[in-house]
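Page 47, continued from p. 46.
Same chain as before, 271 aa.
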Amino acid sequence: MIDRKLKTMLFVPATRPERIEKALASGAGAVIVDLEDSVPPDAKAVARESLENFLMHHDGPGIYVRINGRGTDGFDSDVALCARHEKVAGIMLPKAESAEDIMALAHAGKPVIPLIESAKGLLALSTIAATPAVERLSYGGLDLSDDLGIEGNTEGAERILDQCRYQILVCSRAAGLLPPIDTVFPVFDDEQAVTMRARRARNMGFAGMLCIHPRQIAAVQSGFAPEAHQVEWATKVMEAAKSGDGAFKVDGQMVDAPVIAMAKTILERAQ
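Result:
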């Protein structure tokens, strides 16, 4: 079963099916088997066949599949594969730019996570988010940066991407979707850096992060978990709220309904 409150979604290339079981045992909230970017054009058919064979014999947790984008040669075959297997828990659609892109997956009968990777996708966010079958939103930071013509790994690029995160968050909330998932972070050998990146995404309203290496999982989970002092504060608030008073103080801070809701969210994340 997929954890809908997942903090980590780990990519595995479909060309390496022996890694899928390892990924499923890694502690990741979900595993995404990739048929797109990590698979060379001349290996798409073999990758699809490998994934088909895996799914025919797999009786463990469900997986997500990142298919090739609408309009590519592999799109129809990828969607048909996902439709055939109940162990495909959802489809990640790259380069989503319209509601029509999502609707082209309707016959697969799977939840969809659109990846926003272009200016067109950003402009269509509200209609994409409101399209039936969309479960939550995510984005591809590198492809989006390339499409927008911004220089990656710079302060300016982060400011622009933060604007994109803002739009994704607001459209997700307005459409009643599950909270969005942040893009991949290319660093996996610096646990502190990964944790800080995840914490920043958490503070911006995101529920998790796309991961490219199993070593990122623990660090990302740590970043999305509330700190000890937050849990302590939230526990005090919820204990005090049992009094039934409309408003009260905890540690010198006035507490009312929105603050109680925040404390409840913190304790849910801590679990």
